[in-house]
Known about the structure:
By secondary structure, the protein is mainly α. It has 19 helices and 3 strands.
Amino acid sequence: xxxxxxxxxxxxxxxxxxxxxxxxxxxxxxxxxxxxxxxxxxxxxxxxxxxxxxxxxxxxxxxxxxxxxxxxxxxxxxxxxxxxxxxxxxxxxxxxxxxxxxxxxxxxxxxxxxxxxxxxxxxxxxxxxxxxxxxxxxxxxxxxxxxxxxxxxxxxxxxxxxxxxxxxxxxxxxxxxxxxxxxxxxxxxxxxxxxxxxxxxxxxxxxxxxxxxxxxxxxxxxxxxxxxxxxxxxxxxxxxxxxxxxxxxxxxxxxxxxxxxxxxxxxxxxxxxxxxxxxxxxxxxxxxxxxxxxxxxxxxxxxxxxxxxxxxxxxxxxxxxxxxxxxxxxxxxxxxxxxxxxxxxxxxxxxxxxxxxxxxxxxxxxxxxxxxxxxxxxxxxxxxxxxxxxxxxxxxxxxxxxxxxxxxxxxx
Length: 412
């Protein structure tokens, strides 16, 4: 594969005779598949030669490579223009490639503290015995680590000594930093952890009853939403003359017209688009799989992006990066970033900028157009009608019928 980037025989000979010469053909083919431009790959190869000569002067072998060696090279050689321009990312990717081939020993896992080890053991328990989704289980691990650090510091875990004072310290220590809903989730995780400890024989008494309930009423607030005109401003903020703009426009349409969650957009596969039947297969919360109609407007935007702009890459996810490395937008945070950027370009000064506001906006718009609560629940795929009830708060037309007339009397 080096032959695709260097034509002069002498240059090819130098690269292949270098420290990493035996691995460059395969590595450059990987970078080509990931969409790196020709000049970028060439520059990476020159930096690898500089790195190899530096390693040779220090008498190091390939097996001696690790992150610390790369960090030292960067400190000593970052004044070299090619090295400074390229940075350390290509070197770290090469290191991971060599580790994958077994040429470089695998990175040693950092030793976990006793508290971290117990919290991760609890996370494994949630996955294997409680059948929690991986994301749900991973969110509980930091909560338990924080509780154990507050209770025992860096000392040994004396789990049988846990009591009300530890629970109180944790509750009061986190109350000012998180929202009531987040604290509700933390208290739920703590109760579950205490039941786990009791089941494992680590504590003698069930401490779950000592964890207080948090007052955070489900429908206490009013859904934040954008008006139809504001939605159009967000969509119009995408520059559809560019590949990134067409990709972002398709993503925003799916959020605004179908009411998808950010994670559902990120999970969408090419095989989930049923063009013949005009359906989308949505992989939602709790491993649910549902079919939604593919609206004409959404279908045209998806087709334009996939046909013109989606790069050829190994992932089957619909939405990918537009610059190398060409990988999937695998996390919902990437979708949220697209929404926030579009709102900023549109010049909207709104209190909430997450992707979920577009879902709320669709429900509010449907309600004002006369849709019933059950119809909104079907479109948003709510499992319980109670979840949809919060949108009644924005139905001002219906609420006005319920309002009592203001008492009018003669002034005293």
